[in-house]
Specification:
Chain lengths: 249, 478
């Protein structure tokens, strides 16, 4: 699915990723953990093709293509999805028209007709129910005046509607109440399929109680410095990150 | 981002083509003979000629205004031809079938197939090609309701007393430099009269088109809504591509008598000039309405075209409880300059006005909002609300606001809000991450920004306006 080899990248003038390696197979769920500022969001932005970052070395293959040579929107059309850590507002553009435009763009890329308005609406209502958002949210401006938790659920809603092959979820669990955390976990579990992969960027073991990851990685110093199974997350919860720094040093 | 923006902003003008029709055009220059020629050509009554000549004399004593936040080379008024008519229409077409096929295909290219419109949309169209009205539809249905919708030259013969009573009553001949020029040489335009208590049975629409090189276009529109009547009028324009600047100085007068309602909507898409700032229309228009007791006038405009726009659709709220509204979207891309806004003159008691202005600047565009709210001593209990938002796309464009407030009545309330925002990298990234290309993303963000104004447009126009923004922004983004 995704294969990252020796990736180096700068944000502005600062080198953030320094030789990062990561292999993600189809159907797998990977959790990436790491201290604040370790470069987790940077990694997600570089993969999704945000401007302002410069890749200075390495290679990323996504579904047997050179990911880094694809335009931002083409990465999305090929099935890469990023649930944002800080979802931005687009005033005046309703969630509905935004989602329809996205669904249409993906359909066009696959050479398919866009879904008709009625079946689109039906599906949009279904996914909004799955993430426990009132259908009225579909009529509101994209993230406009949404609470923190509502924005996160709105990201998940988009993911469920767009059905990507690889979903990178950047701290979708942060700022959620306990019930909402369960809703998000249920959504991700419903999304899981053998041809779909998920990267969960998180600080908290509690999410992983609900979504069982196949692998857990620690990002530090711009690289994946430790990988393990779900027990690694428990160990981190218990001991923090300093022992890893020592181990790496 | 700015590189992407650059690329997107550069898109050829979709309506840029020139119709090949032999025109009956006056040589350049302006004097009393030219005015007499125009008046004679239209078989105008003597009083009308006198009216025009008076305007010409005033104009000669006036100077071109230079206070707006726009720059352009001096206009040589002697190099302009003041009359041009498509030849084939000089006998006057009896029906749509009598229209020059070349002309018809021009309209078709612009997406205005008249006969289809006639049947499908229920919109009556008075199309102005250059200076002469060549097609008027739905006359009969309107006639049944007692509505008069015709060219202003026809109106001078059909209902001279109404024309004479109201022409120049809102925008006097010597109101300003361009209005005086228009009063002297106006060639044609639309006239609407809605009788007492009548709600006009359909939206009235006029498409204007400038065609002849070096031909100034001087439309004159007069809409009179008699007591308790209602009308919605749509004006939409597009012009073929030209290298030379073309001057357009129209005058629109609205009269809303007691309890009447006039809604006037404009989508303006004249040639804006190329991406280097060459060519394009100069759009210097005077639009004003007078609202009598309990009357309501509402201006909605979407201005995406023209190289230079100076335009301030205004309301004189003369009668007690009258209402004035102004909803505007103005876009300047490439080297376009727009200085636009409104004047709300509150004279009567409890008069109310609302101003919603959305300015969008991209490329090297410059967009200025200029608005005056005046509360006269008699405007007891009057209120105004102004909201003025600017959106910047890229970092080489500019937005300015010039709000003027004059209150001579302490009980009047004036509220003003203004914001400036940018199409942010984060917003673009979100859209692109969901599969939209940058162009689509920007047009969606801009449409969202304009929502409060588009909502005021008649349905079919709202769709057109959205498309127009998309086309106008092509080449604008990153
Ligand atoms: N444009 C930039 N210029 C310079 N430094 C940057 C830039 N963007 C990000 N950084 C820095 O890169 C580092 C990594 O940031 P990133 O957002 O990837 O961290 P993170 O692991 O997601 O942290 P958190 O857990 O707090 O979300 C931070 O120190 C941040 O300040
Ligand atoms: Mg982060």
């Amino acid at each position: 699915m995704l294969s990252i080899r020796d990736l180096y990248a700068n944000a502005g003038d600062t080198e953030i990723l320094k030789g990062l390696n990561l292999e993600i197979g189809p159907g797998e769920v990977h959790a990436i953990m790491g201290t604040n500022g370790s470069g987790k969001s940077t990694l997600s932005h570089v993969l999704a093709g945000r401007t302002g970052y410069e890749v200075t070395g390495g290679e990323v293959r996504f579904l047997n293509q050179d990911l880094l040579s694809l335009a931002t929107e083409d990465r999305a059309r090929e099935g890469l999805f990023l649930a944002f850590q800080y979802p931005v507002e687009i005033p005046g553009v309703s969630n509905m028209e935004f989602l329809k435009a996205a669904v249409d763009a993906l359909a066009a890329h696959r050479g398919e007709e866009p879904p008709d308005a009625v079946s689109f609406m039906k599906r949009a209502r279904e996914v909004s129910a799955m993430v426990d958002l009132d259908p009225n949210f579909l009529k509101r401006g994209v993230n406009e005046g949404f609470s923190g938790g509502e924005k996160k659920r709105n990201e998940l809603m988009q993911m469920l509607l767009l059905e990507p092959k690889l979903a990178i979820m950047d701290e979708t669990d942060s700022g959620l109440d306990i019930d909402a955390l369960k809703v998000v976990a249920d959504g991700v579990n419903a999304f899981r399929r053998e041809d779909r992969s998920v990267v969960l960027i998180t600080h908290y073991q509690r999410l992983l109680n609900h979504i069982e990851p196949d692998f857990v990685h620690v990002l530090a110093g711009g690289r994946i410095v430790k990988s393990g199974d779900k027990s690694l997350a428990l160990e981190l919860e218990d001991k923090g990150y300093s022992w890893i720094d020592e181990e790496v040093a | 981002m700015s590189e992407q923006i650059d690329r997107l902003i550069k898109k050829e003008y979709a309506a840029g083509f020139i119709t090949d029709i032999v025109s009956d055009t006056l040589p350049p220059g302006l004097d009393e003979d030219v005015v007499a020629f125009i008046s004679g050509k239209k078989n105008e009554p003597e009083w009308m000629l006198e009216w025009r000549l008076k305007a010409l004399r005033s104009w000669r004593e006036m100077v071109e205004p230079h206070w707006a936040h726009v720059t352009y080379p001096d206009i040589d008024f002697d190099a302009i031809s003041y009359y041009s008519a498509p030849k084939s229409s000089s006998d006057g077409p009896k029906s749509l079938d009598d229209i020059d096929p070349e002309l018809r295909s021009t309209y078709d290219k612009l997406g205005i197939p008249l006969h289809e419109q006639e049947m499908l949309s229920g919109v009556a169209v008075d199309a102005v090609f250059d200076s002469v009205s060549v097609a008027t539809t739905f006359r009969h249905k309107l006639k049944e309701a007692g509505v008069i919708f015709c060219s202003i030259s026809e109106a001078m013969h059909e209902c001279p007393e109404i024309v004479r009573a109201h022409l120049g009553s809102v925008v006097p001949q010597k109101d300003n430099y361009y209005a005086a020029l228009n009063s002297a040489v106006f060639s044609d335009g639309s006239f609407v009269y809605i009788p007492k208590g009548v709600k006009c049975p359909m939206e009235l629409s006029t498409y204007f088109r400038i065609n002849e090189a070096k031909t100034g276009q001087f439309e004159r529109t007069l809409i009179v809504a008699d007591e308790g009547s209602e009308v919605s009028y749509l004006e939409g324009c597009t012009a073929p591509m030209r290298d030379e600047n073309q001057l357009h100085a129209a005058v629109v007068e609205l009269v809303a008598l007691d309890n009447a309602k006039i809604k006037y909507s404009t989508v303006q898409n004249w040639y804006p000039g190329d991406s280097e700032g060459k060519g394009g229309i100069y759009n210097f228009v005077t639009k004003r309405g007078v609202a009598h007791t309990n009357a309501r006038i509402s201006w909605t405009q979407v201005e995406t075209g023209s190289a230079i726009t100076m335009k301030y659709p205004s309301c004189v709220l003369k009668g007690d409880n009258s209402v004035g509204e102004f909803y505007s979207v103005a876009l300047s891309n490439n080297y376009q300059q727009a200085d636009t806004g409104t004047k709300m003159i509150h004279l009567g008691k409890n008069t109310r006005s609302t101003i919603i202005s959305k300015g969008i600047s991209a490329g090297h565009g410059s967009n200025s909002y200029r608005g005056l709210v005046r509360m006269n001593p008699g405007a007891t209990g009057a209120r105004n609300y102004t909201q003025c938002d600017s959106l910047l796309i890229g970092d080489q464009c500019g937005a300015h606001t010039f709000p003027y407030i004059e209150s001579k009545n302490p009980s009047a309330v004036i509220e003003h809000e203004a914001t400036t925002s940018k199409v942010s990298d984060e917003q673009l990234f979100l859209c692109q991450q969901r599969g939209l290309d940058a162009e689509k993303a920007v047009s969606m963000i801009v449409n969202g920004f304009c929502k409060e104004v588009f909502r005021e447009l008649p349905m079919e126009f709202a769709v057109e306006a959205g498309k127009l923004l998309e086309v106008s922004l092509e080449g604008a983004v990153g």
